[in-house]
Write a structure and sequence with these properties.
Helices cover about 45% and strands about 25% of the residues. It is of the alpha/beta class. It binds ligand C2E. InterPro entries: Biofilm_reg_signaling, CheY-like_superfamily, EAL_dom, EAL_sf, GGDEF_dom, Nucleotide_cyclase, PAC, PAS.
């Protein structure tokens, strides 16, 4: 042994000193290394010495007085004293020896047979083994520590039985078991029941090599998904499985959720962009498919770019507000909502409803911006269309009343400022309703579009053409130097509208009536201009249409009057201010009254007698005509029954019926009820219907009239010739009578057109088996002419005005007394040769009369053309001699008219001067039989006149 070798310290725990000495000697003699043997003689002393940790080995006597070496070893182990022990025993202690080894003694030696060599070898062996055991224990405890305190849950499982041999703290915490419960645990118990475990997919998370997913359950039954990595090991000669367990439940959930989010973003119909907020200029780092679809850009085109390229290259004012919002939001880091006009890759614009939201990290720093785009171009265009429709007329595309109102107020402001004049033209198409009703609404629509187009074409760019309802157009001229400048526009407009329309193969003519109002902008309510122009237009209509009128204050008064009248009419109906007058219709042949027409009258308490021509149209507008008409009908029936009871049974009553009454359901019942109520025979009642009544709801009206006719009631077509006459309607109407409107009768004796129409209507009506009444027969001449032309009934002031019922009774009584109204051409006049002389010079007339009287003619002489017509109408004239040169009209013109009205007459011109052209024309047209010159030869002229009478007789008979 060298000096440097360490001293081997040995402790002997022995109660026998001799044994100590023997052992010391043995060691000194045999140990190759320097040893020091310390001796204690008691167990407690031994423990104390050992606790110093200074000894490489301890020799312990089995029997230590009252103590046992075995107990000492046990106690030492309990005190974690790791010093190796060699037990010294006596002979025959074999069993105890074995127990000592079991307790951890390294060896045992029998004292009596102990030699130095054996002792040293045993000591070395004990020390080596102790060192090996310590190193093993050291490493075992490291590993245990590693296992136990590993934060990753781990289990040791016995293969086959799957019993859990060990579970580290993390695993116990994961599953919720305590160490004491491990004995009864198996891996299967950790697993969730198989049937609740659907196929697991690791999609979205990365598993470790060899890792598998299993559905496990905690102690309380709560399920979780774990990743298990299993490794086979042999520990202490025992094969074991080491399970590394990771709870991936939330990881999987997160991954699933992330995938869901990703899929939603991918499949969103909104374009989604993500930009990196940590880089300058916010480059795009993600764009979804919808973005590509909306913009036409591929993701690759846009990655790394700032979104502003979507705004195109041009400055767009409409984007300014949206961009300001975005800048503000980006700066503040708040959510942003803005609408921008963006451009697709192909350059087409679209409206982008943009929502930008910042994304923050855990520290609250903005890392990204998410932009959600919505292409709202369609909505925008629908909004635009809606806005257009709100302010425009859908049919013509012209501004409507709302927009007109707007423009009118603006115009007022401007004209006030610049001292200009505004004029408003109100144009209403004449008779458009009839065209619309007869040719169809589609046709009417086309017509309105065309009218709108024509009007638009004639105004300047600052003017407005609007359509405010059906057939009403407005032209707003906001910038006139003076109001009169509107005249040229209104005249052009009327002229343009009057040009023919060629639509759908039809040619239609249309006129318009217009009203003009104007202001210098100072008007309080600009829309009042519209009312004023409307009133003026109404006046233009009254003046015969196809013309225009300026607004004046008196129109306003008239309109107020009409409004007041409308309101008072109801009181009139309720308070019996109405009465019925009767006007006789005279039989043209007998001169007797055959029929009376009931005509309503309104005796207003303050306004006096109001004409039905004023209030009937109002009653029609308000619908009051229904009640009013029924009242007249009943009153007329009652009075007629009264009349019959007074002996005038031959007399029937005519009652006017408005088209509105005819269209109203239940009208037939109204008629039957009236008849029944007073017991008037149906054939004693006649209803007068205007021809235009059939233009609207034709079928309904015609059916109603047929039903009325079937009752036995008669029907007359009133005001014939004034409406939109259609001969085909007359054929359909179950009428008995036609009443020629008084506008034709008025000039019938001198106006060849009126005469032709009257004669035509009489002839047509007779061919259809209808009777004809002439209205407005004001003179004897009218009556005679009409009688001559075979008119059946005559009505007019020439015979009687409309009168109260009592007056009618008196009138009829008077007639019954023989005072017939026969203003018939006398038989004499029919038989006699009658000659009419017309010359504006009295002396010539006298001379001629004197000369021709000798030949026995009945001579009618006059200086006036008008009177000549009357004489012709009232008398059966055969020959006419007319001067050529007269102030009213030329002789040839007069005779040409006479030819049209009285074609049977023989017509001679007597003239002092010769306008050859007009005379030859007249002769060629057949208007003149002979042309005689002044001064005349008495004999010659008498012969010519005689020949003329002969000629008459020859041609007429
Ligand atoms: N210038 C002139 N006029 C003559 C002459 N003879 C008659 N008249 C007038 O001509 C009109 C004839 O009636 P109408 O054509 O049916 O025209 C009637 C009729 O359409 C309507 N009317 C009158 N009463 C009623 C009624 O009870 N119901 C309905 N629906 N309408 C009525 O009012 C219109 C006007 O009635 P009135 O003012 O009573 O006017 C009456 C009558 O007074 C004449 O020789 N010369």
């Amino acid at each position: 042994m060298t000096e440097t070798e360490p001293l081997l310290r040995i402790l002997l725990i022995e109660d026998d000193e001799d044994d100590y000495l023997i052992t010391r000697d043995l060691l000194q003699d045999s140990s190759p290394v320097s040893t020091r043997l310390d001796w204690v003689d008691s167990a407690s002393g031994g423990i104390t010495a050992l606790e110093t940790g200074d000894y490489a080995v301890a020799l312990v006597d089995l029997r230590l007085g009252p103590d046992s070496g075995i107990d000492l070893i046990r106690e030492a182990r309990e005190r974690s004293i790791s010093t190796p022990f060699i037990l010294l025993t006596g002979q025959g202690d074999d069993e105890l020896d074995v127990r000592a080894v079991e307790l951890g003694a390294a060896d045992y030696l029998v004292k009596g047979s102990l030699d130095g060599h054996t002792l040293i070898r045993s000591i070395r062996y004990a020390i080596d083994r102790a060192m090996a055991t310590e190193s093993l224990a050291n490493s075992e405890s490291h590993y245990r520590l590693l296992f136990e305190s590993n934060p990753a849950p781990m289990c040791l499982v016995a293969p086959g039985s799957l019993a859990l041999v060990s579970m580290n703290e993390a695993a116990r915490a994961l599953y919720g078991y305590s160490n004491d419960e491990l004995d009864s645990l198996t891996l299967d118990k950790l697993r969730a029941p198989v049937h609740t475990s659907p196929r697991l997919s690791s999609e979205g998370i990365l598993l470790r090599e060899g890792g598998t997913l299993e559905r496990h359950q905690r102690r309380g039954g709560e399920e979780m998904i774990v990743e298990m990595v299993s490794t086979n090991m042999t520990i202490n000669h025992r094969p074991l499985q080491v399970l590394m367990i990771t709870d991936v439940t939330s990881q999987l959930d997160n991954s699933r959720q992330l995938r869901l989010f990703k899929r939603s973003i991918e499949s969103s119909s909104n374009g989604i962009l993500i930009t990196d907020a940590r880089q300058d200029d916010l480059p795009i780092i993600y764009a979804n498919r919808a973005f590509e679809k909306i913009t036409g850009y591929d993701t690759a085109d846009v990655l790394g770019r700032n979104c502003r390229f979507l705004q195109g290259d041009v400055f767009d004012l409409s984007n300014e507000q949206g961009l300001a919002e975005i800048r503000r939001g980006l700066k503040k880091g708040t959510d942003i909502s803005a609408v921008l006009r963006n451009y697709r890759k192909d350059g087409t614009p679209f409206w982008n409803d943009l929502y930008i939201s910042p994304m923050r990290d855990e520290q609250g720093e903005i890392t990204h911006f998410i932009g959600v785009q919505n292409d709202i171009s369609e909505r925008k265009s629908a909004e635009h269309e809606l806005a257009f429709n709100i302010s425009h007329d859908v049919l013509t595309g012209l501004p409507n009343r709302t927009l007109l109102e707007d423009r009118l107020s603006q115009a007022c402001q401007l004209s006030r400022r610049y001292g200009r004049t505004i004029a408003l033209l109100f144009l209403d198409l004449d008779g458009f309703k009839l065209i619309n009703d007869s040719l169809g609404h589609r046709f009417g629509d086309q017509l309105l579009v065309e009218v709108g187009r024509r009007l638009k074409a004639l105004v300047r760019s600052g003017d407005t053409v609007a359509r405010i309802s059906g057939d009403e157009f407005i032209i707003l001229l906001p910038d006139l130097a003076q109001a009169e400048d509107a005249v040229i526009v209104v005249e052009t407009a009327i002229h343009e509208i009057a040009k023919p329309y060629h639509l759908d193969g039809e040619t239609v003519h249309l006129t318009a009536s217009a009203g003009i109002s104007f202001t210098d902008g100072s008007i309080d309510k600009p829309m009042a201009l519209l009312q004023q122009a409307d009133l003026a237009m109404y006046r233009a209509k009254q003046q015969g249409r196809n013309t225009y009128q300026w607004y004046s204050q008196e129109f306003n008064e008239e309109a107020s009057y009409r409004v007041a009248l409308r309101n008072e009419l109801q009181d009139a109906i309720d308070q019996e201010q109405l009465s019925v007058y009767y006007q006789p219709l005279i039989d043209a042949h007998t001169g007797q009254t055959r029929n009376v027409e009931a005509l309503v009258r309104w005796q207003h308490p303050t306004r006096g007698l109001i004409s039905p021509a004023d209030f009937i149209p109002l009653a029609e507008e308000t619908g009051q005509i229904i009640a009013l008409g029924e009242w007249v009908l009943r009153k007329a029936c009652r009075d007629m029954v009264h009349l019959h009871s007074r002996g005038f049974r031959h007399c029937s009553i005519s009652v006017n019926v408005s088209p509105i009454q005819l269209r109203k359901e239940g009208f037939i019942l109204t008629v039957t009820n009236a008849l029944k109520a007073f017991g008037l025979p149906p054939e004693s009642l006649e209803l007068e219907v205007v021809e235009s009544a059939v233009l609207l709801d034709t079928d309904v009206v015609i059916n109603t009239l047929h039903a009325i006719r079937a009752l036995g009631v008669h029907i007359a077509i009133d005001d014939f010739g004034t409406g939109f006459s259609s001969l085909s309607y007359i054929k359909l109407l179950p009428a008995n009578k036609i009443k020629i409107d008084r506008s034709f009768i008025k000039d019938v004796i001198e106006n060849r057109s009126d005469a032709a129409i009257t004669q035509g209507v009489i002839s047509m009506a007779h061919h259809l088996g209808l009777e004809v009444v002439a209205e407005g027969v004001e003179t004897e001449a009218h009556a005679t002419y009409l009688r001559k032309n075979h008119c059946d009934l005559l009505q007019g002031f020439a015979f009687a005005r409309p009168m109260p019922f009592d007056d009618l009774l008196a009138f009829l009584n008077d007639q019954g007394a023989g005072n017939t109204l026969a203003t018939r051409t006398s038989d004499r006049s029919e038989q006699e040769r009658t000659l009419l002389l017309l010359d504006d010079e009295e002396n010539i007339l006298r001379a001629l009369t004197r000369l021709l009287r000798r030949d026995g003619y009945r001579i009618l002489a006059t200086t006036s053309v008008k009177e000549a017509f009357s004489l012709l109408a009232a008398n059966q004239v055969q020959v006419i001699v007319s001067d050529q040169r007269m102030p009213e009209m030329s002789g040839t013109d007069f005779l040409s008219a006479v030819k049209a009205i009285h074609p049977e007459t023989v017509r001679i011109v007597l003239s002092g001067y010769t306008d050859l052209k007009s005379v030859t024309d007249a002769i060629n047209e057949g208007a003149i039989y002979k042309f005689l010159t002044k001064p005349w030869d008495d004999k010659q002229i008498r012969e010519h006149i005689q020949q003329a009478f002969l000629y008459y007789r020859a041609t007429v008979s």
